[in-house]
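In the design runs reported in the main text, the only information available to the sequence generator was the tokenized backbone. The following block is the verbatim input for one such run; it is reproduced so that readers can re-run the procedure and compare outputs position by position.
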């Protein structure tokens, strides 16, 4: 997510419609992508509506934004995170704990090992689908940290601010998320993808 200029944010706070449009234009793609990655394919049809709900919350709270306390994009990601968690609570989407993935448990039972070797044309799409499935198995806190770090490029301090935990906790969650993903994707990776 690219950082907006302070003057644009200030103008949006003062109700400038062009500045508000610039905020939406600059943040729409990363907000939609983060929501989709976090909630997964079950919410594919709802992603744009959910992003619109996030922007409504952001603009309602915009007069209270304090640039001395956080970067604007970090502040927006806090709304994205909270809204995604609210959606999961409302719709009761089942998630798996990282602790459910242990060394004695198989990552996934593949009926046919050939399923693991996609054709060259479909390789990127297949890998993306597998990663999405593996992400969906992460606990909510680990999934959010992973998405913010690996897809959106936030640093540990920004992620700590968004999630409301210490940088050490962020690093720990990120490590556990990567280990779980590695475990979940191991059969696919061993097949030579």
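Verbatim output:
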């Amino acid at each position: 997510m690219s950082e907006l200029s302070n003057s644009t944010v200030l103008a949006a706070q003062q109700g400038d419609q062009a500045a508000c449009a610039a905020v939406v234009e600059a943040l729409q793609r990363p907000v939609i992508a983060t929501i989709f990655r976090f909630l997964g394919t079950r919410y594919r049809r709802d992603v744009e509506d959910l992003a619109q709900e996030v922007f409504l919350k952001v603009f309602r709270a915009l007069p209270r934004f304090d640039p001395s306390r956080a970067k604007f994009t970090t502040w927006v990601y806090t709304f994205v995170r909270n809204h995604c968690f609210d959606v999961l609570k409302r719709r009761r989407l089942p998630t798996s704990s990282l602790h459910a993935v242990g060394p004695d448990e198989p990552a996934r039972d593949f009926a046919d090992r050939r399923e693991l070797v996609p054709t060259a044309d479909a390789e990127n799409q297949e890998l993306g689908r597998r990663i999405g499935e593996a992400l969906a198995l992460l606990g909510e806190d680990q999934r959010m940290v992973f998405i913010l770090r690996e897809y959106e490029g936030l640093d540990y301090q920004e992620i700590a601010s968004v999630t409301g935990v210490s940088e050490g906790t962020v690093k720990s969650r990120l490590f556990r998320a990567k280990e779980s993903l590695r475990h979940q994707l191991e059969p696919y990776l061993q097949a030579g993808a």
